[in-house]
Specification:
274 residues, mainly alpha, 13 helices
Length: 274
Amino acid sequence: MDFILEPLSYSFMLRGLAGGLLTALACASLSAFVVWRGMSFMGDALAHSVLPGIVVAYVLGISLFWGALGAAILLVMGIGLISRRSLINEDAAIGVVFAGFFAVGLLLLGKVASSTDLSHILFGNILGVGRTDLVLMAVVTVVVILGIVLSFKEIVTASFDPSHATAIGLSPDMVRTILLSMLALTTVVAIQTVGVVLVLALLVTPGAAASMLSRRLSRIMGISVVLAVIATIAGFYISYYANVASGPAIVVVLTFLFLLCAIPRRLGKRVKPD
């Protein structure tokens, strides 16, 4: 019991665990849609492109949340503007804007990091979650989960049958915008927990692992949340006792769970007749 209770005796540890669990809920709830709609590249772009906003926010002394959110909004607007004018396809637009934002972020980080250690921006710092951060995380998590619940049918319809969605008056572009907005908010929240480099793992790995255990979307979402919560708690304790960065610890556990989920599917394929 001491092993479990010792880290929880500190208020900053409790805040860190709460922040990690909120991040897990938000990311895992969207993970199934990110995997099934093939939005992994967009998630990666959002995760890396918020870097300049984070550095600017740090320099100005304001919450990193607002800097990351501003950069995420600019990214989504830039991609939409380029792709809507048919200059290039959407994947190419994501690549161009993402690379530009990330490069600017690295330049700014190099300037600031010469006098300050900002490694927590890249790899996260779950133990550095403050009360204000926790409130913002809670608000974003509630918004994301409510958004999924209220628009679940519309998202599913537009995702798997765009023609039918258009026929019944539902705009696939509007649904995509809603998803991107929730994805941007979730990415911004996850930065504090796992950092810029590892956000994609929380957005993709739970859904990918759950997809190996079920083909029903609602069940995949539930399994994704369970896996993300387990990985967050395990990574939290590993971070405390092994004195390692929280973000990589959480992602390593999540990757291990993914491999475990792959075993039943692999064995199932072997026993099937040719």
